[in-house]
Amino acid sequence: MTPEKEKEMRGKGVNFIMQVGIMLKLPQLTLSTASVFFNRFLMRTSVIDKPGMKALHHYQIGATSLFLATKVEENCRRMKEIIIACCRVAQKNPNIVIDEQSKDYWRWRDTILYNEDILLEMLCFDLTIEAPHKILFDFLKYYSVEHNKKLRNAAWAFVNDSNLTQLCLLFNSRTIAAAALYCAAKHCGVAFADDDAHRPWWTAQCVALPDMRRACNYMARCYEHTPVRAGGDSIYVGLHTPEDGDPALAKTRLRRSRTPPSPTPADAKAERALSAAGSEKGGVKREREDGRNGDDNGSERRRESGDNRGHAAPARFDGEDPGQDHPGTEEREAKRAKLEAGAEPNGQDVKAEEIAPSQPPEESAPPKRGDDLSEEGELEE
Questions:
Q1: Residues paired with residue 343 on neighbouring β-strands, in sequence order
Q2: Which UniProt keywords are listed (predicted)?
Q3: Stretch 24-46: mean pLDDT, rounded?
Q4: How many Cβ atoms from other residues are within 10 Å of residue 184's Cβ?
Q5: Is the pLDDT of residue 150 over 50?
Q6: φ, ψ dihedrals at 217, nearest 5°
Q7: How far is CA 89 from the centre of its chain?
Q8: Mean pLDDT computed over 82-111
Q9: Contact 132, 176 (CB under 8 A)
Q10: Quick check: 205 and 174 in contact, CB under 8 A?
């Protein structure tokens, strides 16, 4: 099978999944998961008939993938509804009546249930799919452009178109979401600012620029020559970009200047007010520190004066020679020496008098009563 024919067959199978999903009113994430299952199955299995074994039709693979995706994404539909939708899309007759008595009903039912086990085996039971739609929406919210309708629709169309190709087999979901945002931003003329570390937006989102450009170039080759509806414009026209191009020249990057911007008059006024308030606070703090230091110095001086209070120098009169002794100096020194020896100048022991307890005063006799006086008077007489 030629690559062109395989590409056409993959596109028909995914388109079948989309039409059946729309008829069943399934969400886009479920259809994206079914498309990934479909492409992974074709990567491991051939769709060419071999001797003794007939290959599966892409409609059969698509129906089985959609049935499995509804259970994985927990958007289950009844088997009867899925079979009726598959029959109407496959026969291109939306009004056909299918019931449980018809042969088409049982043929589609047996095909889906039998091929489900084969599909699980070919997928190695790896059913965890990270849809790029969620990551893309997180990017839009992170850069606050989720309300830009043109940018949002262009990025969403890129992700939906990638389901019709093998892009899900070549790159991970995060790279596909970043490539969708890059394509939409380039188409709409939107640029995203660098982060605080002066890194471009794709580096901040942990995506390599060559991989992102390679994904965009792959989608451009697939859809660049696709006819466009009247009045519309293709997002893939002019999308092709050299993979080794200079990142500084990317149109979707808004470089942040490393030099600080010149202050505005309002900023200068606010800065002066802050500096004035800071100087006032500094002055009050210095005054408090000076007062505290003055109190400490005063207390130290008082302590020094208290220590030297008992050894104060004798008073001097004006005009006296410091080297000349005062007339009463010798007498005072002699008295001090005698006091230290414990005796008064007249030879009496001072310490003994100080140590001896003072005698209590004599108790006065109580006043005599009149009877006593009379008795004494009589005795005297």
A1: 349
A2: Cyclin
A3: 90
A4: 26
A5: yes
A6: -65, -35
A7: 48
A8: 88
A9: yes
A10: yes
Q: Considering only CA atoms, which of 36, 69, 72 is closest in space to residue 163?
A: 36
CB atoms within 10 A of CB 350: 13
The answer to whether 67 and 111 are in contact (CB under 8 A) is no
CA distance 266 to 272: 10
Per DSSP, 165 falls in state: T
Distance between CA atoms of 372 and 71, rounded to whole angstroms? 133
Please state, in angstroms and rounded to a whole number, the distance separating the CA atoms of residues 114 and 245: 50
Answer yes or no: is pLDDT of 35 > 60.
yes
pLDDT band at residue 223 under the 50/70/90 scheme: confident
Q: Which pair of tokens denotes residue 212?
A: 């992102």
Q: How far is Cα 203 from Cα 86, in angstroms, rounded to an integer?
A: 44
Secondary structure of residue 254 in the 3-state scheme: strand
Beta bridge partners of 349: 343
Query: What are the DSSP calls for 278-294, one per residue?
Result: HHHHHHHHHHHHHHHHH
The percentage of the chain sitting over the pLDDT mark of 70, rounded to a whole number, equals 63
- Per-residue pLDDT tens digits for 89-99: 988 888 888 88
Residue for token pair 């890059």:
182
pTM across the whole model: 0.62
Copy the structure tokens of residue 270: 């606010």
At 314, give phi and psi (nearest 5°): -65, 150
Q: How big, in percent rounded to 5, are the helix, strand and coil portions of the chain?
A: 60, 0, 40
Judge residue 177's burial from the number of C-beta atoms within 10 Å of its C-beta, 0-12 exposed, 13-18 middle, 19 or more buried. buried
Q: What is the DSSP string of 282-344?
A: HHHHHHHHHHHHHHHHHHHHHHHHHHTGGGPPPP--TT--TTSPPTTHHHHHHHHHHHHHTB-
